[in-house]
Design a protein that fits this description.
With 217 residues, this protein is mainly α. It has one domain (23-205). The protein has seven helices and two strands. Strands 1-2 form a two-stranded parallel ribbon. Helix 3 packs antiparallel against helix 4, helix 3 runs antiparallel to helix 5 and helix 5 packs across helix 6 (160-167). The longest helix is centred in the first third of the chain and has 38 residues, at 36-73. The chain is rod-shaped, with a radius of gyration of 27 Å.
């Protein structure tokens, strides 16, 4: 009997600890919108993307013109000259595609530039969330702007402003009264997230310019 009572007591204690855990959420879109350095980074990335896209389009335009010229003159060219011109076109097209891959490939120049500009901001946001979570003893922090579906969330558990305040100790953020976007709660405390990398990448997805594509012939 005593053993049964002891077992029940242990189970109840474990349940009490579990139910005592605290949870919170953030809005990563709101956080990022109110960090001027992040907006500046996006502008710089757009500038590079547009510049590199024009560069690549110029390369493909050159290839297209070479091909049109070749088509117009092919009937008059001897076989060795035709082969030479064809090889030139193939070489130029390969150069254009290689440059496209270099600029916009999986780990190309745009990816590297994004890492250089955004990763420091990303780390500061994660550190701020972690600091608040540790201080306020939050077990989990969700991102309502991410892929997780939150059907209902009480405003008092939104710690987005707290995260911005914490980030504001190491970098510039918009003052609380001037912040833009959906208005989160004005004074709850704290949160922790292991998905800072993912939340930044998700937010960036809509801001990345697409790479140019070479035309078919």
């Amino acid at each position: 009997m005593k053993k049964l009572i002891l077992t029940i007591a242990v189970i109840l204690s474990a349940f009490a600890v579990t139910t005592a855990q605290k949870y919170a959420f953030v809005d990563s879109d709101y956080i990022l919108t109110n960090i001027p350095e992040y907006q500046d980074a996006l502008d710089i990335l757009d500038e590079f993307s547009i510049q590199w896209q024009k560069e690549i389009e110029g390369k493909f335009t050159e290839v297209d013109q070479l091909y049109k010229d070749y088509q117009a003159e092919a009937v008059l060219l001897p076989e060795d000259m035709k082969a030479q011109r064809e090889n030139e076109i193939i070489k130029k097209e390969k150069e254009a595609k290689d440059l496209q891959k270099q600029r916009f490939g999986r780990e190309g120049d745009l990816f590297q530039k994004r890492q250089e500009l955004v990763q420091p901001i990303q780390e500061k946001i994660y550190n701020a969330i972690e600091e608040i979570a540790e201080t306020q003893n939050y077990a989990l922090v969700f991102d309502k702007a991410g892929s997780l579906s939150i059907l209902y969330a009480k405003a008092k558990y939104d710690i987005s402003d707290d995260v911005l305040d914490e980030v504001g100790t190491v970098m510039q953020t918009v003052r609380r009264e001037d912040r833009q976007g959906p208005a989160p709660s004005s004074g709850s405390s704290s949160g922790n997230s292991n998905n800072a990398n993912k939340m930044i990448e998700q937010h960036q997805g809509g801001n990345q310019s697409s790479s140019p594509q070479g035309g078919k012939r």
